[in-house]
Specification:
The radius of gyration is 22 Å and the shape is globular. The two termini are 17 Å apart. It has 2 domains: 2-150, no CATH class; 166-314, no CATH class. A hairpin with a 3-residue loop joins strand 1 and strand 2. By secondary structure, it is mainly α. It has 18 helices and 2 strands. It has helices at residues 2-9, 12-19, 24-38, 44-49, 56-65, 69-80, 90-94, 108-120, 123-135, 138-149, 153-168, 175-184, 187-212, 219-228, 232-242, 253-260, 267-281, 304-314, and strands at 287-291, 295-299. The protein has a two-stranded antiparallel ribbon.
Length: 320
């Protein structure tokens, strides 16, 4: 959410000032969500390395206010690893971690923090505790329900896609495990998962960026996803990109880079990237069209978000 983004960008005084208009319970929930959002692959270890950890003292107090005694106790232990003066400065804090320098073994700080992180739990663990907190406070629950009723389809779809990406965690898997994980999913979930992965890279840097990065591991399934969404023209454009990797497609990023992307940018790269323009040229390109008095929709262009939203609606997948 926007508060999680602001927690990365804003220093503590500015961020806390932005929370001042909220009531105490909602402010506590926002701070808990900043923590939840920052619990990456290694939980608290990841959180404290990232910029949002500049708000750790406020998050400590939020855990106490929410009655999360177990989590509060472990969080305090994590803070104590930094010594009596917690380093709010992001660069100063990062120096405690071994991976602030490349190819450095874990140090004592990392080992101790990882141990606390394992006890603290993952994003899902904290999310469940947050739900319990909200359910204990009827006025807060009512506010959340009122806000949720105002969410549009795209906001619900973003939440669904994020949940699919986090739950399946494809990036720590081998090629064979990626294939197995995707094959084990229902068609509907696999379609939205791989299309969201593709679209995140495509929207940022085009077709070339998708294939050069780790996201390219799901490339074979993206073609099927385009067709499942009914985007046949987009599927044909994408198939031309996929055909530029003849034979067995290399899902491993490094193998793919070594074979196809090792040299300087050349005609092959240009041909791959130009397919991005073909996506955006569909139906004359994307156009903002007014829908009613207060809403607008994008017509033309890649059409990925509208297709995913319509698909999720028909399949009754959108969260309530």
């Amino acid at each position: 959410g926007r508060y999680s983004v602001r927690s990365i960008l804003d220093p503590p005084a500015t961020f806390m000032a932005s929370l001042a208009p909220l009531d105490a319970d909602m402010r506590t929930l926002v701070l808990l969500d900043v923590l939840r959002d920052g619990l990456g692959r290694d939980g608290l270890h990841t959180f404290f390395f990232m910029r949002a950890a500049q708000h750790a003292p406020a998050i400590r107090d939020a855990l106490a206010a929410a009655g999360m005694n177990r989590e509060h106790e472990l969080f305090v232990k994590a803070l104590e690893l930094f010594g009596p003066d917690y380093p709010v400065d992001n660069e100063a804090r990062a120096k405690r971690f071994s991976y602030s320098s490349l190819d450095t073994p874990l140090n004592d700080f990392d080992v101790k923090m990882l141990e606390i992180a394992r006890s603290f739990g993952s994003r899902d663990t904290l999310a469940k505790a947050m739900v319990a907190y909200v359910e204990r406070i009827p006025p807060l629950w009512e506010k959340i329900e009122a806000k949720r009723a105002q969410l549009g389809e795209i906001a619900r779809l973003r939440y669904l896609n994020q949940a699919l990406v986090l739950r399946n965690n494809l990036w720590d898997k081998t090629d064979a495990e990626v294939v197995q994980a995707l094959a084990s999913l229902p068609t509907e979930q696999r379609t939205l998962l791989v299309m969201d992965i593709f679209n995140a890279e495509f929207s940022n840097g085009g077709v070339h960026q998708f294939f050069v990065n780790s996201s390219g591991a799901v490339a074979p399934e993206v073609y099927d996803a385009f067709r499942e969404l009914g985007l046949e023209r987009q599927a044909l454009i994408y198939k031309r990109a996929l055909d530029m990797f003849p034979g067995t497609y290399p899902r491993d990023m490094q193998k793919r880079r070594d074979k196809y992307f090792a040299g300087e940018w050349g005609p092959w790269d240009e041909r791959l990237q130009k397919l991005t323009d073909e996506f955006y040229a569909l139906d004359g390109g994307p156009t903002l069209v007014r829908v009613g008095d207060k809403a607008a929709a994008v017509e033309g262009g890649p059409g990925i978000w509208p297709a995913m939203a319509a698909y999720a609606r028909v399949k009754k997948m959108l969260p309530c």
